[in-house]
Write a structure and sequence with these properties.
Blueprint (H helix, E strand, L loop, with lengths): L8 E3 L8 H12 L9 H10 L10 H11 L2 E3 L3 H10 L22 E6 L8 H13 L5 E6 L6 H4 L3 H4 L1 H13 L13 H7 L15 H21 L1
Parallel strand pairs: 3-4
Antiparallel strand pairs: 1-2
Helix pairs in contact: 1-2
Bound molecules: zinc ion.
Zinc ion binds next to loops.
Length: about 240
């Protein structure tokens, strides 16, 4: 921010006029390590500021062009000190660094759905895991669900070429379920206790899921071993 000076709005287009501080800032962003490099100058600067926000293979060329050449042509940087405070704290805080939001879960009486990319990029699936548990704990009367979609990272979940097939069905399904329940879930319906909540989701699903460790073959093998053990005991006695 010190490099930018007073004008904190960064022009991103390669063809736009840039001041010396802005050119210096953009040169530094290109040096910052990231998962994927790109031949597009604007994409390189944007990824240097935020980190890669999508896996390139999930975007069509036309979407990539629109993002970098038409959608975001200027980047206001004034919010970054606030973002830094959020990242350093580990949860959302206000611009002064105060915990002003998470202390008021009663202000969010609504159903929620969390979707993370299973091919981690920019953020980890743990963020949606924690958010989902927070809402289940504080707003148990509403439907809260979470999905981890394999092959996606972050923004490509919504703007990916295959999003309409692999991601959007989770959203429409959740909306239909929430509407059927009229937002709130009855007391006799789905209810979450703290203990149940701890086991509701699988934090290891990005590694293939805990359940996959116990495939049907393994269960059958364990059963056969149990039968063999019983037979051997029978022979002894
Ligand atoms: Zn790119």
């Amino acid at each position: 921010m010190a490099i930018l000076g007073k004008n904190t709005v960064l022009p991103l287009l390669e063809t736009s006029k840039s001041s010396l501080p802005h050119r210096l800032f953009k040169s530094i962003t290109r040096l910052i390590p990231r998962y994927e490099r790109c031949t597009c100058n604007e994409c390189e600067v944007f990824s240097g500021v935020f980190g890669n926000t999508f896996w390139h293979e999930n975007l069509s060329p036309s979407m990539h062009y629109w993002l970098n050449k038409e959608n975001v042509t200027k980047l206001p940087m004034a919010a970054f000190p606030h973002l830094r405070k959020i990242c350093n704290t580990g949860n959302i805080v206000d611009s002064e660094g105060n915990n002003s939001y998470l202390i008021h879960p009663e202000r969010m009486p609504l159903p929620t759905l969390y979707i993370s990319g299973g091919r981690s990029l920019l953020v980890t699936p743990e963020t949606s895991f924690l958010a989902n548990n927070y809402m289940k704990l504080h707003q148990p009367g509403f439907r809260h669900e979470r999905d981890v979609v394999e092959g996606f990272g972050h923004s490509d979940l919504l703007i990916g070429e295959e999003s309409y097939k692999k991601v959007f069905p989770h959203i429409t399904s959740h909306i239909r379920s929430a509407e059927r329940e009229n937002g709130a879930i009855s007391v006799g319906g789905r209810k979450y206790s703290i203990e149940a909540m701890d086991w509701e989701d699988d934090p290891y699903e990005q590694y293939g899921g805990f359940s996959t460790w116990f495939s049907p073959c393994v269960v059958i093998l364990l059963f056969l071993m149990l039968v063999a053990l019983c037979l051997s005991m029978f022979n002894v006695f």
